[in-house]
């Protein structure tokens, strides 16, 4: 384990040793990966959107059994049971609550009053300004290079905008995979970096080995709306090509089937799914067809990430997949990232002093 120390507002806020965050990837960021990141000194984020409330409670306990280090849980702010999940995090004394969408101001206040660090994810400066004004402790900003749901603005443009706009720690995501990126993010004024694809491609990730090999063997990603109606960066595969060329009606039929499958997997009732759909429709101003298509996401990801059937599912991926060719452990990865970043920063200082 490296003895390098990069003390930043992120490490001081969360109590982790290194300013490196593993993002809450559905079906991927489970107890095994999260605890490995935590034990290596980073901030592991448990993905809860694909879990029932009871499954989330069990997952938190499993992480606790594997590590004594701080970790976080990613929540859907628009979920019908978001309040119950927040109560669970408070009871379990989870250190960090992260959100893919901005939580309501009263939810932020409730978490902060209980001593939970609140870190929403955003893709635009105005969203960062909003959650900062509501009391968020930090913000994770993802540029268009990132995998999964993504925007069109590159990290190198979005990050400095957000750093200049808010006075809370900013975590940079989208396009990071090594220590040079961490050093660059710190130079921009960020407090650390968050990585998804890079942590997915570790030996501690539970993604099937055959699927990992597909990631390592490709460099081609595409942003498609055919998964769930919103921009989604995934690996380009024959299935994705077929989705891109399919008609609207076939997409809706597929979405209805996947909604039924997701209901069985998640334990949700149809009324619960409808309530979540209404919240999603209002929060993102989506059409009903887009809301229905959102059921595609968890099941198409599960097919590849859990069942090992990339021919039947999609694989979210950042553009950095083209630069990754190994499967280190989380400890090896974080040590290498932090050591290289420290070396780069020292080298820059020496060069400027000459």
Outline of the structure:
InterPro entries: Aldolase_TIM (IPR013785), NMO (IPR004136). This protein has 354 residues and is of the alpha/beta class.
Walk me through the structure:
The model has no long low-confidence stretch (mean pLDDT 89). Helix 3 packs parallel to helix 4. Helix content is 49%, strand content 12%. The two termini are 32 Å apart. The strands form 2 sheets. Strands 1-2-3-4-5-6-8-9 form an 8-stranded parallel β-barrel, surrounded by 6 helices. It is built from 16 helices and 11 strands. The protein folds into 2 domains: 229 residues, Aldolase class I (TIM Barrel, Alpha-Beta Barrel); 88 residues, no CATH class. The protein has 354 residues and is an alpha/beta fold.
């Amino acid at each position: 384990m490296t003895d390098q120390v990069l003390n930043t507002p992120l490490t001081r806020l969360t109590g982790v040793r290194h300013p490196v965050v593993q993002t809450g990837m559905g079906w991927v960021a489970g107890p095994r990966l999260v605890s490995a990141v935590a034990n290596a000194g980073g901030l592991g984020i448990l993905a809860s959107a694909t879990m029932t409330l009871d499954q989330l409670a069990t997952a938190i306990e499993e992480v606790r059994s594997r590590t004594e280090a701080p970790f976080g849980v990613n929540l859907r702010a628009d979920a019908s049971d978001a309040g119950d999940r927040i109560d669970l995090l408070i009871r379990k004394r989870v250190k960090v609550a992260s959100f893919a969408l901005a939580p309501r101001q009263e939810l932020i206040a409730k978490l902060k009053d209980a001593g939970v660090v609140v870190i929403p994810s955003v893709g635009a400066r105005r969203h960062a300004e909003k959650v900062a004004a509501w009391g968020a402790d930090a913000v994770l900003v993802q540029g268009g290079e990132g995998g999964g749901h993504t925007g069109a603005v590159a990290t190198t443009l979005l990050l400095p905008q957000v750093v200049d706009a808010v006075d809370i720690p900013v975590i940079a995501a989208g396009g990071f995979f090594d220590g040079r990126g961490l050093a660059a993010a710190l130079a921009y004024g960020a407090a650390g970096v968050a990585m998804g694809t890079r942590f997915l491609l570790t030996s501690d990730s539970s993604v099937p080995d055959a699927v990992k090999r597909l990631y390592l063997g490709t460099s081609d990603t595409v942003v498609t709306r055919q998964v769930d109606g919103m921009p989604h960066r995934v690996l380009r595969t024959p299935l994705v090509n077929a989705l891109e060329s399919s008609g609207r009606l076939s997409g809706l039929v597929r979405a209805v089937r996947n909604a039924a499958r997701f209901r069985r997997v998640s334990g949700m009732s149809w009324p619960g799914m409808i309530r979540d759909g209404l919240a999603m429709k209002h929060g993102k101003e989506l059409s009903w067809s887009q809301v229905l298509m959102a059921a595609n996401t968890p099941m198409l990801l599960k097919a590849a990430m859990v069942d090992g059937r990339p021919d039947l599912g999609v694989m979210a991926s950042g553009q950095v997949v083209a630069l990754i060719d190994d499967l280190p452990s989380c400890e090896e990865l974080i040590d290498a990232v932090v050591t290289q970043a420290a070396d780069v920063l020292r080298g820059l200082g020496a060069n400027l002093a000459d």
